[in-house]
Write a structure and sequence with these properties.
With 353 residues, the protein is mainly alpha-helical. The chain contains 17 helices and five strands. Helix 3 runs antiparallel to helix 4 and helix 10 packs across helix 11.
Length: 353
């Protein structure tokens, strides 16, 4: 444990982190229903207003898509909590709400829940990358690749691809296909969600026409996907994040040092369901999102993790690789620097020979 975390642990009165987070685990049914109402009802209203606005101005429709997409992100956060069994005490009720909100956010609930659980169990582990992560290579891995794979990685990690194209392709198309290793229920979840989405689209097309349906649905899912992937990206891809080989990997360190505290303005914190307290969520995903802020404010243990403001988070777009030697994320300029060093070293060796 780092010195700051050790000091925070001492200030907690000697309580283990398990005892600290356990205070916030119990879901509140009334609070959960209130959060659903505060999210689902405005989302439905905005959807209706967007349909109405098509007869006024499409610029108004697009303007309404911005808050609509933010409410869609909040729907996803509720589904996310249901997937962790954190939103309601009843797992059956968690699953019912999760499935419904999964359809509204283009996400197959059971399949996503399975992959996301793996992400939580392996985040920051260099030897267990590959599922539920933004693909991240180390500097050595990248330098060992053939040129065409390096090019592919550069394109994949470019912000324009990740957020303006890849995010939308993931939600609209890739999540329509199950992972080959998914259990039967998870595969059924993928196909069931696709069938429900087709039914939802068919109903709206019959009601308002397919062109009008697309004019409403496309900007909502486009912006919602962009914001959702940005939040996931920023919470693990900052400069001083945590990556370790499996023998050196530690769950608590990976949670508190490998997940950022994204300090957002209050209105954005609300729309994103407190997911900015990501370090606490990773340490204990059983805490409902409406209790994360209280956990942060009431425990010094959680106030020493990497903190990013909205402005600072934009700087993370330059980091593309994990540098094993420096122990931090770096950009592709680091590779050019190492190549130059290798070239100079070879020249010196040839001169000496």
């Amino acid at each position: 444990m780092s010195q700051s975390l050790a000091a925070a642990s001492a200030k907690s009165g000697g309580r283990s982190w398990q005892k600290i987070v356990a205070q916030y685990h119990k879901p509140d049914v009334r609070e959960g229903l209130k959060q659903i109402a505060l999210t689902l009802l405005p989302f439905a209203l905005i959807w209706a207003l967007m349909v109405w606005s098509l007869n006024v101005s499409y610029l108004l429709t697009l303007a309404l898509a911005v808050p609509g997409a933010l409410f869609m992100v909040r729907l996803f956060i509720i589904m996310h909590d249901c997937g962790h069994g954190a939103f309601f005490k009843s797992q059956k009720l968690n699953d019912i709400v999760g499935v419904i909100f999964g359809v509204l956010t283009f996400t197959p609930y059971f399949s996503w829940r399975h992959g996301h659980a793996i992400h939580h169990a392996t985040s920051g582990d260099l030897d267990r990358r590959g599922l539920g992560d933004v693909t991240t290579l180390t500097v050595r891995e990248y330098m060992a690749l053939p040129w065409w794979r390096r090019l592919g990685y550069r394109l994949y990690r470019h912000p324009a691809f990740l957020f303006l194209f890849g995010a939308q392709v993931n939600f609209v198309f890739l999540q329509r296909w199950p992972y080959h290793a998914d259990p039967a229920r998870e595969k059924l979840s993928v196909h069931g969600t696709t069938a429900a989405l087709l039914g939802w689209a068919a109903a709206w097309c019959a009601l308002i026409g397919w062109q009008n349906y697309l004019l409403v649905q496309i900007p909502l899912i486009y912006l919602g996907s962009l914001v959702g992937v940005w939040l996931f990206y920023i919470q693990h891809q900052f400069e001083d994040t945590y990556w370790r080989p499996h023998p050196d990997w530690d769950y608590v360190q990976a949670s508190l040092q490998g997940s950022s505290f994204y300090k957002l303005p209050k209105v954005l914190q609300w729309f994103t369901g407190n997911i900015g307290f990501h370090h606490i969520h990773h340490l204990s995903p059983k805490i409902p999102f409406y209790r994360l802020e209280a956990a942060y404010r009431e425990n010094d243990l959680f106030q020493h993790s990497p903190t990013l403001t909205l402005a600072e988070s934009l700087k993370t777009l330059r980091w593309r690789l994990w540098d094993e030697d420096l122990g931090r994320m770096v950009g592709f300029a680091r590779v050019a620097e190492l190549r130059k060093r290798e070239k100079l070293l070879k020249q010196q060796q040839l001169a000496q020979a």
